[in-house]
Amino acid sequence: xxRRRRDVAVFGLSFLDVxxxxxxxxxxxxxxxxxxxxxxxxxxxxxxxxxxxxxxxxVLDARQELLSQExxxxxxxxxxxxxDAEAQRLREQxxxxxxxxxQGQDSATEREAExxxxxxELLALESKVQAMRAAAxxxxxxxxxxxxxxxxxxxxxGLSVGGRRVLxxxxxxxxxxxxxxxxxxxxxxxxxxxxxxxxxxxxxVETVNWITAQMPADGQFQLxxxxxxxxxxxxxxxxxxxxQGRGLNAAMRALREHTPAGGTSLTRAFVxxxxxxxxxxxxxxxxxxxxxxxxxxxxxxxxxPQRQALFNEAAQRLPRGVPLNVILMPMEGDPRAASAFWQLxxxxxxxxxxxxxxxx
Length: 360
Hints:
By secondary structure, this protein is α/β, with parallel strands linked by helices.
């Protein structure tokens, strides 16, 4: 008997199995790749999250310190007002006793004794008022130099201005003329007087003015301005005595007369810091972003990765064992600067500050 021929199915079970396995492998590969991307994103954001936590702690500490200082100031003001009122009351009582003094000898003697007692009490009270006023102004009286402004704006925590030898590095490049790239390019072509009057540069000068007012009166300092090269604000480049503020005043006058220009070589600034003898025991850096020049000055546009490489080159020249305190005035289009300078300050044992626009 002739056997019937069976038709062969084109899409059989084996083909469907292959298709299913292929789709499953594709989905698994997609999940693995996406998970790896998430892990990389989490790793890249870890440093930023750590910096945010540190800044939040600094803000909380600053607020607590400010509240405690305000409470202490209010208590001192209340005690001073109370003492003033008591002194005024005693003066009125003395005048009343003098006006009502009788002509009799015995009564006059008693009245004079009472007046002498009240006068002694008044003198003691006035001495107490003067002592409280002196205590309330003690923070300002102990400063090396006076800073004009509204109140005492010394509310930043973490920034130490102490030390026997304090080095202040000030970025004096053209980018310090404006917080935006377009504004800096526009201002760098203006006349020197206009550039010195740029709001960002004036803020930089006043920041240095605030720092020098907090420095020890019997210490030494140096103020170096860096752009494509490094130069001292005044003197030959060695350590200068603050001389009860006179040396600092001379440096501030020279800083106010300086005109920002050129690129930024942080490497040369740190090399100059390392060359100081004896070595500084505190460095305060005021800048606005990553450097655009290295040990060698080059022309042309500098990309973001190149600026990061120039920063890494400069970090290798920073004197070891010296705390670096950074005050950053951020520049538009430089998102890596804050993280880079924060890490460098933390590793050196210093502080990183990005103050509000109205400070100091």
